[in-house]
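Lab manual, section 2.4: Encoding a predicted structure.

Procedure: take the sequence of the chain (339 residues), apply the prediction step described in section 2.3, and record the output as structure tokens. A sample record is shown.
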Amino acid sequence: MSLIVYSLLLMMLMSCAIDQNVVVIYTERHYDTDQVLFDQFTKDTGITLNIVRASADELVARLLTEGENTPADVLIFADAGRLYRAMDASLLQPFEDDVMKSQVDEGLYDDTYHWYGLTMRARVIMYAKDRIDPSLLSTYENLADSMWQNQIAVRTSSNLYNISWIASILMTQGEIYTQPFLNGFVSNFHREPAGNDRDQAKLVASNVGANLAIMNTYYMGLLLNSDDESERAVGESLGVFFPNQGDNASGAHINLSAGGIVTHANNVEGAKHLLRFLTSTSSQSHFTNVNYEYPVNPNTTWHPLLLDWGTFKRQSINLSDLGLYHERAFELMIGANWT
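Recorded output:
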């Protein structure tokens, strides 16, 4: 064998070896909590994680463009509804695994094993404790009642969390119900939607007329544990209400961050190892204790703040199909003048 051929073979072998010590993550999530876990994973395993952060649409477009030549191994989205697009484009491969199924609660992973939940938040009603009797609150549907005229604060219709929430109503109750609900709901807005979830909380706390805010629970955790005294005061002025909790009710809507293995992943075993790590009790404890997210691992204890809010019944829907309803849900939201 010539020296040149030998050198080329050696370089190829080294390249393969290096590839198996690197996992490339395409992620929509942007939290410091995730980076802490990524760093811990590298420390524990010696596997380097290369992180690409972008929006869900940008990541899907990139994967489609790259095709078989993509460097990505793992795809993580902030809401499982977005994963429908990736599955529909065959960008994820199935990964049925007993460890994953034991670490992720039933209903929080794809029934064909293309993705698994990583964390969840509930989309709930925050109310002004000094002005609203929580016994008046009941369901999402009740928010369309004229009793709440000019009292609701919420983000824009383009917000992913809102789209998934309305998509879940469309999915379970159909368009014949969803459009009238939206018409009533939007007519109760205090102002034209603007800002993020924390801005809705601040609007309610300012006592200028808005008394209810539609928010994800983790934002409340961030407010109550903020270094800013004024933000803590905002959080302390609000109560948390989980809607649709009756025996025959649908349950509170959740936004589920989830991840899967890219179809053309170079390091499938490393990707599996990472997903197992992120759903382990130690990682799940980190998510809930630092970012105030609900763990998907049923063996993980919730942060004390989340426990204080109480357990809740979550909406029982097939999250793999939720993305099917996103486009029409957004059209109906626009049709109801939800800007």
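Check your result against the sample. The chain has two domains: 3-120+255-301, 121-252+323-335.
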